[in-house]
Amino acid sequence: MSALAGPAARITVSRQPPSSALDREVWGPGVQPIVVVKDAAGVAVPGAVVTVRLTSGTATLQGTLSATTRTNGSATFADLGIAGPGTYSLSFLTSSISATSSAVKINPLPPEAATGKWDPPVAWDIVPLHISLLPTRKVLAWGKFEPNGTMGMPRLWDPATAPSSAPMVRVDTMLFCSGHTLMADGRLMVSGGHKQDTRGLDVTNIFDPATQSWVPGLPKMAKGRWYPTVTTLADGRVVTVAGRDVTSTVVLIPEIWEGNRWVRLTGASLTLPYYPRQFVAPNGRLFYAGERVKARWLDVDVVTTNGRGRWTSSAGLTHLWPYNRDYGAAVMYEAGKVLYVGGGGDPKWSTTDPKASAPTATAETINLNVTGPHWSNTTPMHFRRRHLNATILPDGQVLVTGGTSGGGFNNLAGAVHVAESWDPRTGQWTELAGNSVDRVYHSVSLLLPDGRVLHGASGDASGYPRQPSHELFHPPYLYRGVRPSLASLSKAAVTYGETFTLTTPNAAQITQVRWIRLGSVTHAFDASQRANALKFTRGSGNLRVTTPTTGRLAPPGHYLIFVLNRNDVPSAGTIVQVK
Ligand SMILES: [Cu+2]
């Protein structure tokens, strides 16, 4: 067929670029230019390589700057955009013929594209200081007290509605100061609870999002837990570490949920502070990142003369900042890579490690994928913070919100409102817009499926102001023009090392695919969130995405999957389960 066409003699623009767009915006697939190449007799010329450039000006044309004509003589550009405000035309060139597009006006980015934006506070009738995103896309949250001072009851909130009207989900134990995380099957494990301050209950509560109810009659733990951390392991078992029991004694022995009951890991006796910041590592062990100066490994299956379980450490696991990072935040922002940021500053904090008089702005990272891992400094935040929250964003950056720069346990005078984000590619922090409410001790942050971040709560403990509200943060990526859209997944549940199909009209524009595990947050730590960049190949109208090879890299459960373009603009998230 192509042999019938003569040399290219005529080129026309059959679909013009957008009449206006934002600086650096990746134009949507519906306004990417199409050109048609024909020979002198009007016969379509296939296989002609068409290049594009700007006719004038100092701006930069971005994206893939060539396209090849198909059988019908048309060539569709994939991901063009222009960096640099102004008005431009594109020139399409093949052989020695060219065509010029209509004008494209490139508008400067709004300030929010650099700083993001906060919505005004939204009222709750409780302080949502324990908060989890469920696989149903609803949010389960509870505080210490009801407005009338009785025991706090969970609320099941649909983010499309007003939180003050969220229905109560009754539970028979006080879940304040429990530990919680999403389980492999999408239910929420809640370990321990509140007898009174510093005295924990030994109860197990599991919330089933499918039935919107609590599972009754579960076995109890050996010890009460007040301020424990609960982590879902690579094989779906769940381990509860630390906290205080009903006699206010620090619980030394972790317990593991396996076969629907708790088993004590008596070989792993260790004094750890409240809400240890811990993660499943690529070696399958649990990595305790802090707040103690020395990080540690927990092996839940090894058996020693002391019984099952063992803690170990090594020289590189000692933090560079030589003080407790109490109420700092930690995130595993990519498999095996942990950021520990801020914390410290309470001279009365009860551990044997050295204590600083003011919180730190410093941040450290560790890569657990290598042998002999060690902490390294990354750049410090612009503000000292404790009681900060750290949230993994769809673009791979880590958002830090709230906290206080002041020394002492919870220094309201030092409340920090300016948010910051850390880019793992550069190690740099960027100052973002500030929220309006002091959110310090008992504050939370949670990534929502649409890519916004809920920052809420604070207080609800004696002596500190109650903040029964949240504010939504719109990250800068929501102000950089049209977002890619993720139409569908070929399946709702995937296995490890599996390749599945993700349908998106932006397939030709996607440069990253990332999933982030659903969050479950309290006390400046999310025990459930973690992220993986996923490998993929581009097809026509779809991507073939490959899941991590093992639960050690991505513990089983539900993740929000996002696709991103080369301008780091993410789609909204779709929930997928890996098991
Ligand atoms: Cu508390």
Structure description:
The chain is mainly beta and 579 residues long. It folds into three domains: 2-108, Immunoglobulin-like (Sandwich), CATH 2.60.40; 114-478, Galactose oxidase/kelch, beta-propeller (Methylamine Dehydrogenase, Chain H, 7 Propeller); 483-578, Sandwich (Immunoglobulin-like). It contains one helix and 52 strands. The strands form 13 sheets. It has an eight-stranded mixed sheet, with no helix packed on it. Strands 13, 14, 40, 41 and 42 form a five-stranded antiparallel sheet that branches. A hairpin with a 2-residue loop joins β10 and β11 (97-100). The chain is elongated. The model has no long low-confidence stretch (mean pLDDT 97). The structure holds copper (II) ion. Copper (II) ion binds next to loops.
Main attributes of the structure:
binds copper (II) ion, 1% helix, 579 residues, single chain, Immunoglobulin-like, five-stranded antiparallel β-sheet, mainly beta
Describe what is shown at a glance.
The protein has 579 residues and is mainly beta. It is built from one helix and 52 strands. The strands form 13 sheets. Strands 43-45-50-49-46-51-52-44 form an eight-stranded mixed beta sheet, with no helix packed on it. Strands 13, 14, 40, 41 and 42 form a five-stranded antiparallel beta sheet that branches.
Topology of helices and strands:
Blueprint lengths: L7 E8 L4 E3 L11 E6 L9 E6 L5 E3 L3 E3 L5 E3 L4 E3 L2 E3 L1 E5 L2 E4 L3 E4 L4 H4 L1 E2 L3 E2 L6 E4 L5 E4 L12 E3 L21 E4 L5 E4 L2 E3 L2 E2 L3 E5 L4 E2 L14 E4 L5 E4 L13 E4 L2 E4 L12 E4 L5 E5 L5 E9 L2 E6 L16 E6 L2 E5 L21 E5 L8 E3 L10 E4 L5 E4 L16 E6 L4 E7 L8 E5 L5 E5 L11 E6 L13 E2 L3 E2 L4 E5 L6 E8 L2 E3 L2 E2 L4 E8 L3 E5 L10 E9 L8 E5 L1
The structure holds copper (II) ion.
